[in-house]
Amino acid sequence: MLPICHVALVLEFSAQHQFFEKMNLKHSGNSLHEIYAQRDAHVGDKYKFFQADVRLHSAEKDFVVSDFLRQKYGGLVENLEVLDVGCGGGDTLVKFCDWGFEPTNLHGCDILESRINQAKKKLPDGVTITLGEPSDLAPEQYDLVTAFTVLSSVTDESMRQELAEQIWSKVKTGGWGLIFDFRVNNPRNRNVRKLLPEDLKRYWTNAESNTFFKTLCLAPPLARFICPISYRLGFTLSLLPFLRTHFVYAMQKTK
Ligand SMILES: C[S@@+](CC[C@H](N)C(=O)[O-])C[C@H]1O[C@@H](n2cnc3c(N)ncnc32)[C@H](O)[C@@H]1O
Which candidate in 63, 157, 171, 234 could, as Cys together with 175 as Cys, close a disulfide (CB 3.0–4.6 Å)? Predict the structure, then answer.
């Protein structure tokens, strides 16, 4: 059954691959800035909130991340110091504000100035947004460090490992690193590469056996096709683990 999910992803990634080919973007020769700028200019309404598949994926992610916060903190999040690495337009931090995190405890960083500006517009006063990499920030300051679909966008293994180690270095002793990302690879798309919990276990040392792992997100091509016809059918299919293309993984730091 697993190949169904992979076939759907091949179709999806093939479309993305053609887009990047059309834009004549070679990952090795262009910076992430250029890739994201071109993508933003051509993505249209594909990821807008009103798309049924986007709503399903957002609901799935909210459910799993909020379940992590319930399990590990009993839902008491007000005093948690949080860093969202690769915060993009700030959607995760906006969500955390809604869920009762104290805005002055929330921090985000991203290397794209346009994304940072979008985030600043959406977020309340008190949230700190920094243009740059996590390496620019002080170590071991945060109870929770999140990175959502960030590591998969760094395809070079040594750069990915360095960024993952940077993310981990920001976590306080006793704190958590929390990753949401792709778990399915496609060799035809050179601009994203899957990540697995096993990779994070290699990158993150001093970790307790205390972990959290859930798979989620109905394969995007299926979700995009099915959800506009029947959101409930999309939701039902998302209950099948082999159709899920993403994961949430968290590890706690011991020292
Ligand atoms: C696919 S977007 C995800 C944005 C956001 N996390 C979300 O879930 O909506 C990946 C983001 O990671 C950022 N990024 C990639 N490498 C980074 C790095 N080394 N430091 C900070 N941000 C980075 C990109 O600029 C981009 O905004």
Answer: 171
Q: What is the pTM of this model?
A: 0.88
**Residues with a CB atom less than 6 Å from ligand 1:** 32, 36, 85-88, 91-92, 109-112, 115, 133, 148-150, 153-154, 163
User: Hey, whose CA ends up nearest to atom 14 of ligand 1?
Assistant: 86
Helices (H), 23-156: 32-42, 52-73, 91-98, 113-122
Closest CA to 228 of 46, 6, 32, 8: 46
Kindly tell me the burial class for residue 205, based on how many C-beta atoms sit within 10 Å of its own C-beta (0-12, 13-18, 19 or more). exposed
Instruction: Quote the CA–CA distance of 139 and 212 in Å, as a whole number.
Output: 23
| Ligand 1 atom 27: residue of nearest CA | 88
Domain 2-253 coded CATH 3.40.50.150: yes
The angle at the Cα of 107, spanning 172 to 132, to the nearest 5 degrees, equals 100
- Residue 88, CB-side half-sphere exposure with 13 Å CA sphere: 13
Distance 12 CA to ligand 1 centre (A): 21
Distance CA 194, CA 75 (A): 30
Q: How many angstroms separate the alpha carbon of residue 39 from the centre of ligand 1?
A: 13
Distance CA 242, CA 255 (A): 36
pLDDT digits (tens, 9 = 90+) for 69-99: 999 999 999 999 999 999 999 999 999 999 9
Say how far apart CA 64 and CA 180 lie, in whole Å. Answer: 10
Domain ranges of the chain: 2-253
What angle (nearest 5°) sits at the alpha carbon of residue 5, between those of residues 46 and 67?
A: 75
